Amino acid sequence: MMFTYKIDDALSLKLIELSDAEELFKLTNTSRAYLKEWLPWLDSITKLQDTQKFIKSSLNGFANNESMTTVILYEDAVAGVASYNSIDFSNNTAYIGYWLGEEFQGNGIMTRVANALTAHAFEVLALNKVDIRAAVENQKSRSIPERLGYVQEGTIRQAEWLYDHYVDHVVYGMLAEEWKEEKRVSR
Q1: Which of 158, 144, 151 is nearest to 172 (CA)?
Q2: Hey, how many other C-beta atoms are within 10 angstroms of the C-beta on 166?
Q3: C-alpha–C-alpha distance, residues 144 and 128, integer Å
Q4: Engineered SS bond to 102: which of 31, 80, 87, 167, CB 3.0-4.6 Å?
Q5: How many other C-beta atoms are found inside a 10 Å radius of the C-beta of residue 5?
Q6: pLDDT tens, residue by residue, 36-62
Q7: pLDDT for 2
């Protein structure tokens, strides 16, 4: 089954495929210095085969009902990646992660993408909670769940090793009942 989710005329999500590898690797390379500030995996993606390996692993996670990785298409170009990094069906919780190429910043893309993934989690997957985590100092990433009305639930100390130091993560959560209320109020 191929997953596609049209957000608006310029923006959509589609399940990642091996055919996305070249464009995704190119985007990773051109945004490498920018992305490295907050993403710990850049040193492990140094050639096309590394991106292909990531895609195969992502597709395996999807096939096993454990995760769902999508490419973000903005005006038909691969702009980044957004995913349920994991889906915990025993607790009905999805964990959203995302990154956007540097050249695509400032267009409101990621807020619309996170909104779409949140809606899909509650309205299609019938989950109870969506979780987004971001480094305490990563204001751009933190602003996304804050704009969407997520509740700041706490901080996980030294949650991630980022090349030469640990960073703390802020945890944001949205419950299905809060999402329904947010949608009702915003109409």
Answers
A1: 151
A2: 12
A3: 20
A4: 31
A5: 17
A6: 888 889 899 999 999 999 999 999 999
A7: 62
**What H or E segment, with its residue span, contains residue 151?**
strand 151-161
Instruction: Show contacts of 51-55: CB within 8 Å, 24+ apart.
Output: 51/21, 51/24, 51/25, 52/18, 52/21, 55/16, 55/17, 55/18, 55/20, 55/21, 55/24
| Residue in 6, 2, 50, 43 with CA at minimum distance from that of residue 24 | 50
Of the candidates 105, 100, 65, the one whose C-alpha atom is nearest the C-alpha of residue 79 is 100
Of 125 and 183, the one with more pLDDT: 125
DSSP symbol at 142 = H
Q: What is the pLDDT of residues 58-78, one digit of tens each?
A: 999 999 999 999 999 999 899
User: What is the spatial distance between Cα 56 and Cα 91, in angstroms, rounded to a whole number?
Assistant: 26
